[in-house]
Write a structure and sequence with these properties.
Number of strands of chain A: 22
Keywords (chain C): Cell membrane, Membrane, Transmembrane, Transmembrane helix
CATH class of chain B: Mainly Alpha
Radius of gyration of chain A: 25 Å
Number of domains of chain B: 1
Helix content of chain A: 25-40%
Distance between the termini of chain B: 12 Å
CATH topology of chain B: ABC transporter involved in vitamin B12 uptake, BtuC
InterPro entries (chain C): ABC_transp_permease
Distance between the termini of chain A: 47 Å
Radius of gyration of chain B: 19 Å
Oligomer: heterotrimer
Helix content of chain B: over 70%
Subcellular location (chain C): Cell membrane
Strand order of the largest sheet of chain A: 6-7-8-3-9-10
Number of domains of chain A: 2
Strand content of chain B: under 5%
Chains: A alpha/beta, B mainly alpha, C mainly alpha
Shape of chain A: globular
CATH architecture of chain B: Orthogonal Bundle
GO cellular component, one term (chain C): plasma membrane
Structural class of chain A: alpha/beta
Largest sheet of chain B: none
Organism (chain C): Kutzneria albida DSM 43870
Number of strands of chain B: 0
Shape of chain B: globular
Largest interface: B-C, 48 and 45 residues
CATH topology of the largest domain in chain A: Rossmann fold
Strand content of chain A: 25-35%
CATH superfamily of the largest domain in chain A: P-loop containing nucleotide triphosphate hydrolases
Amino acid sequence: MSNIVLEAVGVDKHFAGVHALRGVDFTLRAGQVHALVGENGAGKSTLIKVLTGVHQPDGGQLRLFGDAVSFGSPAQAQQAGISTVYQEVNLVPQLSVAQNLFLGREPRNRLRLLDFAALYRQAGQLLGELGIPIDPRRPLTSYGLGVQQMVAVARSVGAEAKVVIMDEPSSSLEPREVETLFEVIRKLHERDVAVVYVSHRMEELYRICDSVTVLRDGQVVHSGQMAEIGRLELVATMLGRELTNVRTVFSGEHDSRSGTALRAVGLRRRTVLDGVDLDVAPGEVLGLAGLLGSGRTETLKALVGLQPLDSGEIQVDSTTVRTGSVSSAIRAGLVLVPEDRKAEGIIPHLSVRENIVLAALPRLSVAGIVSKRRQRELVDTFMRRLRIKAASQEQRVSELSGGNQQKVMLARWLAMSPKVLLLDEPTRGIDVGAKAEVQALVDELADQGLGIVLVSSDLEEVVEGADRVVVLREGASVAELTGDQVSVDSVLAVIAHEA
Amino acid sequence: MIAGIVRRHGALAVLAVLLVVGGLSFSTFLTPYNLSNLAVQATFLAVVALGMTLVIVSGGIDLSVGSTFALAGVLAAYGSRWGLLVALLLPLAVSALIGLVQGALIARWRMAPFIVTLCGLLFARGLLQLLTKEGSTTYLVPQDSALRWLGQGAVLVVLAVLGYLAGGVLLQRTGFGMRLFAVGGNEDAASLMGLPVARTKVSVYVLSGLLAGLAGVMSTAQLGSGVTVVGVGLELNAIAAVVIGGTMLTGGAGAVSGTLAGVALLAVIQELINQVGRFNSSMQAVVSGAVLIVVVVLQTLLSRARR
Amino acid sequence: MRLDRLNLRDHGVYLALVLLVLVNLVITPNFLTADNIRTQLVQMVPVLVVALGMALVIGTEGIDLSVGSVMAIAAALLPLYLGYGALPAIGICLVAGAAAGLLSGSLVTFAGVQPIVATLALLVGGRGLALVIADGQLKQIRNQQLLDLGSGSVLGVPLTVFVAAVLVVLVALLVGKTTFGRQLVAVGGNRKAAEFAGLPVRRVLLVVYLLSGLLAAGAGVLATARLTASDPSSVGLLVELSAITAVVVGGTPLTGGRVRVIGTVAGALLMQLIAATLIKHDVPASVTQMLEAVIIASAVLLQREGTGLRLRRQEAR
């Protein structure tokens, strides 16, 4: 077995009352591609931040090549040869690709000034070695997210790295780009660089990783060779559940009623949407499937007026809704629970009550004066109906768990008595138990006659939750699957069918 | 493409038009005497705006420069009785110290730059009043002081030009310059890349303080005394010049050459208003404000269109 | 421990106020006389009125640097229209203030300019405009109604103080009890989420800047009435700083999402008393100014400390 490069021994980390890491041991060997997995909140990010010097451990020790080290900052960790590729691209968009690659270690000439010729030459060389065919002189912004992520990878590799930590690097990449990424990882492996690979995508883990460490509730619950643990077993270890409970709780069967709750025809917007048609019956759950960037989120945003349209018609209950206007959509009963709960959903330092009544405020007020009593009644109803767990109505929403925050978002919109509910990734970033609750709620709401459109990057969730699935590709609806056709395999087949 | 060109060279184009219009309208406008006079008067703003450019590229703002400018001027006059070295070092040291404290508060304690530097504005102004016994004392530069030699128009202009050359090299051709762009463009990324973000920010406020101080010394050298009432609102003109010159207030982009064009543009506007004569001199502020609004709106709209 | 921090951040201003009053009772002769109290209140009125508008703007995560210049514009306009009577003249000043607010508000909402820049442009141009309007002149006010507003009193309460008190109540009700107030706080807390929730974000922002301009113009009128002269070159100079201080010292964070109206009143009062105390004990104005700078910085630091800890708690989740 090859040398141990980096080692964490008994690492502890607290955050104001939360025990994020409890005695974590982690061993990384040269040339290893090591999967680090766990549910959200298991402590993966915290461990990574400790390894890369963003956080300092409260207890335990880090060892680099056997010597105890402590990193006071990311800079120190990088100097020691540990570099990181983050989930979100962390580069400077205005600077050129080459400048981004060499920021902080730019080639200098004899006068100690930047040597741009050498900069571009070295950048071109590095990109060439890794098989990334882009022009190092152009500003980073002129390339898409996927390419930017590859630049981030190239930057980390260029730093004479001994350890490269990749935190969900593939989440914004197209399949072709993922192949390039894997190619790079193989080259790192050949150079005896150790790689820590964090991902939720099982398939990727089994393709590229040779060993795995599983975190749960801040503790290591499994560590070993990738080949020695099966896929289902791995998932069960992550979740800490029996295998049978891993599935979703969706019933996927609703008695959709006759009529149309929502009909959208020919939604078009230059470079974003290219002809989306869909309709939803009352009491029906329609799944929207497609790859990242296929226009799923944009379609939902367009439906509620957050994404301007060049053309297209939207009808709720056979009444045409003015496009591009959020208030018209809401008035018509068309509401969206957005994808990014933190950035687009909750108002963090307002209370649960204020977050729930936010959209309904005008309805709860007379001549612009809001009635606190009516607010309380409304909030009380929904907290009970959706089983929102909070200390009181006045608790700050940011103190709730992700699942309860999601329910607050649902309550906000249900308070508007909508006809059609659009859900963008409703179970992202919430724990397994809450996931099941949210899924059950969606079923319940459909049974009560709401039309629902469900978007999720988890294909299984879409397939099991929806009665019908519309597949999007490059901003257009390309297929509709009903009845028995609704299965992971058939949806995948449609998505993968590239013209 | 067009957006970039307008942003980078818009100030220069407007400047050219104004020079032509001014030259055709007023016979005394495009004379060598008038132009060199204009250049000398613009040097102070130019030097202050140079520091402001660096600060704004790093994503910050420095409102204290007007006060620092005045304080340094008084300190230079005060120190000139002990010779040139004291007259230079005393004000520059104090200005750098003001920048250092501000930079530390901003970088280490993560306070909003505009609040910190507003406090700096108040503090430096108060210190200035204290030194001059609430404005009742004026320090004169001795007739035989070498400081007065520094105050010749040609020397001032040369100093400013050297400053801009050095500033251009610093921003475009050094690692420090790249760090400024990186910090201003995406601070989180810069710190995750292991760049010394805090040190970079502190340095840029020290530089800004130093340059404001230098401008104050230059002003005292020219006037022969430390005038307490100068520099009020100078920070606003400096910001206006920087923004008009195409540096984005959101940080991460900009160039010192644009700032120089912005300074020249402001100076020419003022001169034209003087030449017209009918207008109240306050008209200059109105025009500067209007130009600033137009430029900022254009910048915002153009950068949005690009996205 | 958490309770202590909350107390210091949210109620520190009241604590400081009580302490300062107690200290003054001991060291300052004639402190608790009706006369002195009146003087202190009258002097703080313009800053307080401006600060009310500033609190609203800061609540939306914005800033309004133009308030001093708007005060100057109002002061410059006032004597020009006194011929039509005091009320019409005041009305014109208020309309001008609202228009100025609307301009910065439009720049912020429609053009997407950062608040600090939009209002900075108005700060530069506004005072120039005021001086152009007034031709750089100081003008005596001879309109009796206006002079009464400036120096008259009802039941021993100066009229300007009375006006300010009414405005405080109105703004407090606006923030606490109305749809608009709640929407304002939501926009400041998370603008994108407010947009997604279908709130009229642009209208809220526009109205907030309009109100700030309106209140600043009102402050300009009050200050002019009290001075018995229109002085556009110096009225409201640096008032933006005092107003921001009052707001921040009063517990409204610069990061938006919260507005503390009563805290702002306490903040304004605290800063007024500090200055008065220092002047009364012959501390030079220069030192007073330097101390003010230190106090503002400390107040902001205290606010930031709170948010810093909160952020970290969220991160741990």
